[in-house]
Amino acid sequence: PARNEGEHIAATVRSILAQEGLAHLEVIVLDDGSTDGTAAIVAAIDDPRLQLITGGDGPLPAGWLGKPWACARLAESASGSVLVFIDADVTLEPEAIRGTVELLREQGFALVSPYPRQIAVTWLERLVQPLIAWSWSATVPLRLAETSSRPSLSAANGQFIVIDTQVYRSLGGHEAVANEVIEDVALMRAVKVFGEQAATVDGSKIASCRMYEATNEVVDGYTKSLWSAFNGPAGSLAVNGLLLTAFVAPAVAMLAGRGKTRAIGAVGYAAGVASRALVANRTGERTWPDALAHPVSVTAFCGLNLISWSRHLRGTNTWKGRPVTAVN
Length: 328
Known about the structure:
The chain is α/β, with parallel strands linked by helices. The chain folds into two domains: 9-213, Spore Coat Polysaccharide Biosynthesis Protein SpsA, Chain A, CATH 3.90.550.10; 217-323, no CATH class. 48% of the residues lie in helices and 15% in strands. It is built from 13 helices and nine strands. The strands form three sheets. Strands 3-6-5-7-4 form a five-stranded mixed beta sheet. Strands 1-2 form a two-stranded parallel sheet. Strand 8 (318-319) and strand 9 (322-323) form a beta hairpin. The radius of gyration is 20 Å and the shape is globular. The chain starts with 8 loop residues before the first helix and ends in a 5-residue tail after the last strand.
């Protein structure tokens, strides 16, 4: 799916067309009402495996959000035994799809979500973006989640999702998550409810993505969905409280406390920095000095969480010109 991705779409499509070791590959791009020439850029790429379809010019069907609707349209046009959903700002290494499909088949998964390396350049990106990989690495026991049927043990990234076509169509496809703001996690949960296994894996060596660039993109990108991430306002407040207590309070104690309080704070701060550095080193993201600012990153995330709820309650959350109005 591509909506106003003129800066990224050519690199994304060419990296998909350059995939190696695939006997059959069809690449379908849905131009979702772009106004920046995205469709023309795709149309200029001459490859018989590439198909461009258009949509998004009219209002969305009742009960649908934009990305699930676009993905559903794409799936309708696809004929392969495996569906690969890739965001229009993701770049793949040549073996990315083959390797992920092999993992899907060999391990008996119905869905695999490789987590791309997140590219962060500006100061706000560097503060916030690494928290995505850190959060699921630190809070979800991924190897246990692979074999668990519990939908709550689900972590997925819609930037890169590989799913068995038969399972996808049997569970209702994206129609099953039509009004979900965080549709990637919802899709993995639907797979588990259907009785299948799913996995999130480190994809930092096979895919990369720069999600947002400008400050307003970072703020809008997170606030459009954070309100739906923690099962209501009470859950969001609880998450904020836990994060601030675990990772910000120790830093404050280290800086402002005395004696034993300062020492305990220093240990807590060091533990938070170490967890951040370990994840960053594994996923190929910048480690130093960014990990040292982990308490600041957590504070920024908590602020975005509050802004997200404020916008949601006022009905002002939007993304790329569309209101985000789904009910959690």
